[in-house]
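Researcher: We plan to redesign the surface later, but first we want a full-length starting point. Tokens attached.
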């Protein structure tokens, strides 16, 4: 590839008022309107005592501006300015300046973030109904819960403190803020965010997780999850509070247990002939014996957790063991053990594979880190909490847009959706006063983009049923 023209210094000019840089926001924000996002903001976000008189005015269009900016790739408040460039003002009304949106976010308090959290859940249910976000939820659904630590810098970030995180497999102390997230997924669909909460960096990973699990199970039930619901989490969530929350809500659990003395004794009591090689993706079958060649083996044993409390639970302790790579030449295998506690009815090997798929929540975190949560933009903790919840709303909205676009975009990363269907240039024209978007010829994802367009702009809601 080489340059085709000889350009002069003054050959580049920012002077086209009809050019649109993010034409994909038209069907995306149409979907937001069809699912009632702005009206939910109007009904549920109420700021009675603002610090600045105009700070709480018109919260619905300001928050919608923020959501649209995040869908286009904004990872800071200043990035929202892209919505006011070129012909964007001819496509959208009520687009606010970044400074105005920032003023609104600084008006938020803990109570206002709870209002925004209720909008996120209600809008998720509307998206699931409108776009069919979670196929298979009536058969089985997964609630995955986990947290991450987002680093911050400087001395003016409220709530920032030092917490433990893993970098390249090593535990380190890092200053930051810690979002806790719960997702809903199925065997056929990528996960969506059912709950999001920002906490101080030093907060324990499991702080506030039980109530979030209960709320996420309720959301899954409201979305049509009439079948089995399985709550999955790592060792920070293998606690009696989480198990109690899951069982009281009628869900099953699959949670990693910390290897304390009782768990180690249970693992040691497993007979050697109980271990079974597990079939993981990439494993190969031995041509002579027909056995799966894998360093991993699984076994299970009955185990009573939290035996010294009133919340004792007896279920299956499933243990996966792998050869310790630090001792490749040992005379006898040296194993590392990974136990998890579950009341699942699957076979041992299937339950292990299902549990390991809990790692799908990391793809959600990767999307957020590669998008709105690249930065925590404000010095105020509540403003950053509101930003985090708006990031969750934008993530679910993009996921619904990808589902309507089809062509495997329902499982695509957020950055992929922005590249293929949102950040597409167009020229706005009005022949005979009829708005037309002229898009690039031979766009590689024309079919998917037009499917999204026809499923939103061409959408006709079903007539109301009469009795």
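Model: Full-length starting sequence:
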């Amino acid at each position: 590839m080489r340059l085709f023209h000889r350009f002069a210094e003054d050959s580049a000019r920012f002077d086209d008022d009809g050019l649109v840089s993010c034409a994909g926001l038209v069907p995306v924000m149409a979907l937001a309107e069809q699912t009632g996002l702005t009206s939910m903001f109007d009904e549920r976000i109420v700021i009675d005592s603002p610090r600045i008189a105009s700070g709480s005015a018109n919260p619905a269009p300001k928050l919608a501006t923020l959501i649209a900016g995040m869908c286009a790739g904004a990872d800071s408040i200043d990035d929202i300015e892209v919505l006011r460039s070129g012909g964007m003002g001819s496509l959208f009304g009520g687009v606010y300046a970044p400074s105005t949106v920032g003023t609104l976010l600084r008006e938020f308090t803990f109570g206002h973030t709870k209002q925004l959290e209720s909008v996120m859940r209600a809008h998720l249910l509307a998206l699931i109904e409108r776009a069919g976000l979670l196929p298979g939820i009536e058969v089985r659904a997964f609630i995955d819960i986990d947290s991450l630590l987002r680093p911050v810098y400087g001395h003016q970030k409220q709530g920032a403190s030092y917490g433990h995180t893993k970098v390249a497999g090593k535990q380190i102390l890092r200053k930051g803020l810690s979002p806790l997230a719960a997702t809903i997924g199925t065997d056929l669909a990528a996960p969506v965010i059912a709950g999001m909460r920002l906490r101080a960096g030093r907060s324990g990973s499991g702080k506030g997780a039980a109530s979030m699990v209960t709320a996420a199970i309720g959301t899954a039930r409201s979305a049509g999850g009439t079948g089995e619901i399985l709550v999955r989490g790592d060792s920070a969530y293998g606690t009696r509070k989480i198990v109690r929350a899951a069982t009281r809500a009628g869900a099953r659990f699959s949670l990693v247990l910390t290897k304390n003395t009782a768990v180690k004794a249970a693992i040691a009591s497993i007979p050697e002939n109980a271990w079974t090689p597990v079939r993981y993706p990439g494993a190969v079958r031995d041509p002579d014996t027909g056995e799966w060649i894998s360093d991993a083996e699984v076994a299970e044993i009955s185990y009573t957790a939290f035996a010294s409390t009133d919340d004792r639970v007896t279920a299956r302790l499933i243990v996966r063991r792998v050869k310790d790579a630090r001792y490749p030449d040992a005379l006898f295998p040296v194993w590392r053990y990974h136990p998890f506690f579950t009341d699942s009815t699957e076979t041992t090997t299937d339950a292990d594979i299902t549990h390991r798929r809990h790692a799908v929540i990391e793809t959600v975190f990767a999307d957020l880190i590669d998008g709105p949560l690249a930065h925590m933009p404000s010095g105020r903790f509540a403003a950053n909490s509101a930003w985090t919840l708006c990031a969750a709303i934008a993530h679910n909205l993009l996921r619904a847009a990808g589902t309507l676009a089809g062509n495997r975009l329902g499982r695509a990363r957020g950055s992929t959706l922005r590249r293929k269907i949102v950040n597409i240039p167009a020229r706005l024209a009005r022949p005979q006063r009829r708005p037309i978007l002229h898009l690039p010829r031979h766009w590689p994802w024309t079919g998917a983009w037009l499917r999204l367009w026809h499923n939103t702009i061409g959408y006709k809601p079903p007539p109301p049923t009469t009795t």
